[in-house]
């Protein structure tokens, strides 16, 4: 990769991070995708890349057996990169415009029933400060539908528990309000008032302090939450792979099953498009069919 390509990559990263306000995860993924592409280009001039070169690169990466989702993202990265170069008048056209991403099959999201949620919650050992913190986290994930990254980034200034509200910052730093159930609120308040100080003694509780911390007093990272959930699931016999995101899926499914408006669920989840929320209506429909087949004497 030549020095000019390195310069363009740095400028592109700054563009999607600052100007486009992409999430840090998207910035990392797109930057990695473009770095791989530029390494493959080697010393070839970035300005001479055309549609055929892009197709050649896509044929090259097929050997790695990427999923359709990953391949689609890599194509999106290339489109965005060349759109940036075109805007900066570095290239005369975007060679990735005509490249189509592979069609991704729709998979229904995994979710937990109310009984399974209770089974998970009751198996969290709350007799230690870290255990109680983890229970509060799981209650909050299920009650609000927030993403694990949003929960990790919570500061005390984001909490308005008198109104059962929490302000979160989703993908692209988009701000929204999520609502907290009374049950989750009680766990959260007990954690803040009693347990948090036991996890890391002397830890600050200013408006800018993280709500959830580790034993050193620093912000609890998403990976730590995943590890905590895995520890719980290892002691439960459930035929499902439970991740933090499963609690978000369970929240959305339960809301729709209980009659919530699709637009309301979209707002609470922070989906930019309602099409992302509509998949949960399919989940609810599948459950209705299953219940019908079990209950109706002439269903089969």
CATH topology of the largest domain: hpI Integrase, Chain A
| Rg calculated over all Cα atoms | 23 Å
Name the CATH superfamily assignment of the largest domain.
Intergrase catalytic core
Order of helices and strands: HHHHHHHEEEHHHHH
Report on this model:
- Helix content is 57%, strand content 4%.
- The protein is globular, with a radius of gyration of 23 Å.
- The mean pLDDT is 87.
- It has helices spanning 3-19, 24-41, 51-61, 68-87, 114-122, 129-144, 148-152, 182-199, 222-233, 244-257, 262-269, 274-295; strands spanning 159-160, 165-169, 175-179.
- It folds into two domains: 3-87, DNA polymerase, domain 1, CATH 1.10.150.130; 114-295, Orthogonal Bundle (hpI Integrase, Chain A), CATH 1.10.443.10.
- It has a three-stranded antiparallel beta sheet.
């Amino acid at each position: 990769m030549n020095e000019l390509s390195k310069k363009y990559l740095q400028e592109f990263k700054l563009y999607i991070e600052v100007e486009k306000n992409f999430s840090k995860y998207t910035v990392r993924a797109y930057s990695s995708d473009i770095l791989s592409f530029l390494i493959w280009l080697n010393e070839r001039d970035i300005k001479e890349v055309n549609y055929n070169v892009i197709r050649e690169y896509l044929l090259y990466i097929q050997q790695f057996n990427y999923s359709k989702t990953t391949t689609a993202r890599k194509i999106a990265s290339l489109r965005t990169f060349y759109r940036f170069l075109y805007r900066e008048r570095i290239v005369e056209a975007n060679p990735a415009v005509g490249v189509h991403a592979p069609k991704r099959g729709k998979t229904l999201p995994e979710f937990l029933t109310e009984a399974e949620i209770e089974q998970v919650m009751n198996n969290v050992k709350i007799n230690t400060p870290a255990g109680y913190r983890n229970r509060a986290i799981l209650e909050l994930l299920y009650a609000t539908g927030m993403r694990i990254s949003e929960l990790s980034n919570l500061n005390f200034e984001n909490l308005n528990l008198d109104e059962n509200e929490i302000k979160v910052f989703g993908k692209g730093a988009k701000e929204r309000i999520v609502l907290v159930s009374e049950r989750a609120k009680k766990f959260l308040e007990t954690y803040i008032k009693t347990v948090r100080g036991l996890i890391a003694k002397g830890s600050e509780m200013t408006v800018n302090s993280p709500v959830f911390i580790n034993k050193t007093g620093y912000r609890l990272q998403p990976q730590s939450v995943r590890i905590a959930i895995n520890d719980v699931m290892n002691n439960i016999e459930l035929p499902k792979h439970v991740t933090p995101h499963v609690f978000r899926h369970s929240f959305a499914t339960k809301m729709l099953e209980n009659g919530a408006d699709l637009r309301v669920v979209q707002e609470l989840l922070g989906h930019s498009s309602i099409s992302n929320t509509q998949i949960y209506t399919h989940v609810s429909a599948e459950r209705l069919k299953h219940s019908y087949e079990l209950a109706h004497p002439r269903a089969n």
